[in-house]
Design a protein that fits this description.
The complex is a heterodimer of chains A (about 290) and B (about 200).
Chain A: H1 4-8, H2 14-23, H3 28-33, H4 46-54, H5 56-59, E1 66-69, E2 74-77, E3 79-80, E4 83-86, E5 91-95, E6 100-106, E7 111-124, E8 133-136, E9 141-144, E10 148-153, E11 159-165, E12 167-172, E13 175-180, E14 183-188, E15 192-193, E16 197-198, H6 203-213, H7 220-230, H8 237-243, H9 249-263, H10 278-288
Parallel strand pairs in A: 7-8
Antiparallel strand pairs in A: 1-2, 3-6, 4-5, 5-7, 6-7, 7-10, 8-9, 9-12, 10-11, 11-14, 12-13, 14-15, 14-16
Helix pairs in contact in A: 6-7, 7-9, 8-9
Chain B: H1 15-33, H2 37-56, H3 61-78, H4 88-109, H5 126-140, H6 144-154, H7 160-167, H8 171-191
Helix pairs in contact in B: 1-2, 2-3, 2-4, 2-6, 3-4, 6-8, 7-8
Classes of the chains: A alpha+beta (about 290), B mainly alpha (about 200).
Amino acid sequence: MNDDYLWNKTGRDREVEALEELLSPLGHAARKAAPAPVKAKARGVWPVLAILAAAAGIALAFRWWMPVTTQEASLMIRPIAAGQIDLKEYGTVQVHEGAVVSVIRLTDEKIHLRLERGTIDARITLAARPRLFQVETPATTCVDLGCHYTLSVEADGSTFVHVDLGEVAFVEGGRETWIPKDASCRAWPSRGSGTPRWDDARPELIAAIEALDRAKPGESSAAAAALIRTCDQKRDALSLWHLTNESDRAVADAAWKKLIELIGVPEGVDDARAAEAAESWKRHLESSW
Amino acid sequence: MPMRLESVTMADMPASAAQEELTELSLLVQRAQHGDSAAFGSLHERFARSVHAVLLARLRAADADDGLQETFVLAWRRLASLRDPSALGSWLHAIARNVARDRRRDLREANELRPELPGRIESSSAEKDELRERVMEHLRSLPDAYKETMTMRLVEGMSGPEIAEATGLTAGSVRVNLCRGMGLLRELLEKEGWP
């Protein structure tokens, strides 16, 4: 059989042409060009796209952007320089000078940025449902749970968050670290999240947390045990709660024991360690400090 | 004036022109490696179709779109590690295969490996959407070498010489992959009563 058409599109091959016609709408060019369906949701992100497009002056510093489409909405992967990203009813993101930020995804389901280095201040309103706004860094993904926070990434990818209002979570795979208002946390590319702590934590507690977060493999269990011993106030429950997820069973057990000693078990919770009790624990923790 | 690859491909060119094209690609890669995002944008434009095909040969269309972004974000971050600029195409395709593998694993864990849902291609009937997805499933069932080449050809509309240029395969290999892949696909479709 003559395969010229299959090879370089010369001549005719009706079978191949029929397949091309059927399948071409799935191709990159067709999907990029096709208009995205208008969604009936009142809080669409199209205004955000318009705002970002209007902010092209900001993007000129990099002279590069790539429009891509998905089933939900147009996307842009675009490094942006210092300035403010207006997320309309969802809030604003202030990009500090020197920060390297890319817009990864803008859909009704997720507003997803990547912060390669530098600092951003995110002011996310209550109009944004929890987890709508996420910022990926080399070390973790900072997931907004309804708040104001400052996120910084150092040259080595290590990440620091300080929460002014509400709460965020650092998420790496299935592991989630909860960081509420007036607390901060670090994360590292090789290790993921460290231990959250209050801004006004006692010096001995800060030292114990830093010892754990910087512990070498093989030393972390001892450092965790030392931190658990240092926790002796109700507000220390924030760091203890984090340790209950430790993979070292002995550390997790000790953290649970100390946590319950300090603040008790949430009302109505029969199995304190059950995954379903996590939200009850968070509310219980909040009421204890 | 830089040559445009959309109309002329290296497989069609005399050796000197192909060499010039390779040099242009190398220069673009080197510029991108030094942080020139406009150069990287050109590389994206040049390779998006073939990378999309590699993803689409493994993922449903919406996931392939997301995978395309992820592949180029990863490529931008890792570009400094690419030592041979002329190998950019095969390097991007390798990243795309890993992205597709990870996405399939994530989707499997989330039990979301469902067939493509109609809706994106608004002008098509539901039957056509269903037929399209059935053909894609047959394409995805082909051996790797065939399914990527066939997706580039039938879905992305690339010619054989363009595929050879993007993948780094010889023109002969691509032609063989296309012929054998088409033969296998034809057998699968005939079993379904494809006209």
